[in-house]
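Tokens for chain A. Residues wanted.
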């Protein structure tokens, strides 16, 4: 006989964890189902380990750039050991016991929706009033001929590696590629970054990609834009990529950072009336409902595949199930690349605004020329801030920054965009001196309104 729960959560990454914890706190009987490790990709193979190993190079660079400080030394074994501690040594025993202590039914294995309100986990049947699909995404391997003949890493191999390669070929110039290239080069790896498009960070403003490329080159990365790998081959111990322009590059490993694809295969979603988009993502409504009694959240929805969005959607789903329906909104969501300096953005790009038929004005400021904080922070200060506004409604539409700690202070723009705070109010805001946040006033005053 099938066991009944109020809610079955398939996939226990950050979004699934938020939903499950919220429902458990409200007294619901919850089954948490995970085929790998509770905590998901973010906790073990992506966000946490990557940001952990990006921090030592950032700190060392900060020492190098600060007047009156020198002598920082990077120690890969120490950084690796702390990374492994932060990633729980790929052991989720504590999470399993924590959820059991909270009253959850914890099941480890492959789940399949076997019918409306029915879930099978490795032959064990459950019935549930609600099923939440939070299975995330997996690294997308580009269709390069012969790629199976060379040494290929995804984010998983990169951020669990015990030893670093001498030479790495990073394929892809978006967030993961930029972070990975910077982490490796600062730890002494010879890095070549290949980007098929003509600029890095292709989904952001062109200026962001230009600045990101300049900073990577300064760090020692061989950045090659407009270069598409068409063939991979082994030459002795080398992994070689032949490029469309007739040239080739070689290294010890090829690291693919070319995007991710939703994990929906084998879940039986068709038996629950769930619609799958051409991208492979689950189609959801404004409450993250995928079908009657079925919900989806996180990367598997294909909507802004960030951990913070998955957690937000987890709150939306849990609250709606608990009778407090909320509508998900995605305007002003921050996007951060933890490079050095950090790259942060929120809201629309000029291209997106144009596609929506919006009238815009924009401004960019060199923060070192505008405010004091960059000079107190480091020698030869870096930092640029760009704003995009609607001159008719006098509100911000978008913002970007490439500067130290930009991931922290982008949230002022994020809130302004999300809440529709008028530019006149923003101009009247008083920022602490000296901070990078002061730059907003200079950029706002530069808008042709």
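Reply:
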């Amino acid at each position: 006989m099938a066991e009944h729960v109020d809610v079955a959560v398939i996939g226990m990454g950050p979004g699934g964890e938020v939903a499950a914890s919220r429902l458990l706190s409200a007294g619901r009987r919850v089954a948490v189902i995970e085929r790998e490790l509770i905590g998901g990709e973010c906790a073990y193979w992506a966000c946490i380990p990557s940001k952990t190993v990006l921090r030592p190079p950032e700190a060392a660079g900060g020492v190098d750039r600060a007047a009156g400080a020198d002598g920082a030394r990077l120690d890969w074994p120490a950084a690796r050991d702390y990374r492994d501690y932060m990633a729980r040594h790929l052991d989720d025993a504590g999470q399993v016991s924590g959820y059991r202590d909270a009253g959850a039914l914890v099941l480890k294995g492959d789940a399949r929706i076997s019918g409306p309100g029915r879930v099978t986990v490795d032959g064990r049947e459950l019935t549930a009033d609600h099923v939440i699909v939070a299975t995330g995404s997996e690294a997308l391997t580009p269709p390069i001929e012969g790629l199976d003949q060379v040494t290929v890493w995804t984010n998983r191999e990169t951020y669990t590696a015990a030893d670093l390669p001498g030479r790495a070929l990073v394929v892809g110039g978006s967030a993961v590629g930029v972070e990975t290239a910077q982490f490796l080069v600062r730890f002494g790896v010879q890095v070549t970054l290949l980007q098929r498009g003509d600029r890095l960070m292709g989904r952001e403003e062109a200026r962001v990609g230009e600045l990101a490329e300049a900073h990577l080159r300064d760090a020692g990365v061989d950045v090659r834009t407009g270069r598409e790998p068409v063939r991979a081959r082994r030459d002795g111990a080398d992994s070689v990529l032949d490029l469309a322009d007739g040239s080739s590059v070689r290294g010890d490993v090829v690291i693919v950072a070319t995007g991710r694809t939703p994990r929906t295969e084998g879940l039986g979603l068709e038996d629950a009336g769930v619609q799958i988009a051409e991208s492979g993502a689950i189609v959801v409504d404004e409450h993250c409902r995928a079908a009657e009694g079925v919900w989806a959240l996180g990367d598997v929805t294909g909507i802004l595949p960030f951990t913070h969005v998955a957690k937000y959607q987890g709150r939306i789903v849990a609250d709606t199930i608990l009778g407090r329906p909320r509508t998900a909104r995605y305007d002003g969501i921050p996007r951060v690349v933890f490079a050095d300096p950090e790259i942060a953005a929120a809201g629309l790009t000029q291209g997106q605004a144009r596609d929506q038929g919006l009238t815009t004005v924009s401004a960019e400021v060199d923060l070192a020329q505008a405010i004091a904080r960059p000079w107190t922070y480091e020698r030869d200060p870096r930092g640029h801030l760009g704003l995009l506004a609607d001159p008719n409604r006098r509100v911000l539409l978008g913002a970007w920054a490439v500067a130290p700690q930009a991931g922290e202070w982008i949230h002022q723009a994020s809130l302004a965009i999300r809440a529709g705070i008028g530019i006149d109010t923003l101009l009247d805001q008083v920022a602490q001196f000296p901070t990078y946040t002061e730059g907003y006033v200079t950029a706002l005053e530069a808008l042709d309104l």
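The first strand starts at residue 3 and ends at 10. The CA atoms of residues 342 and 405 lie 6 Å apart.
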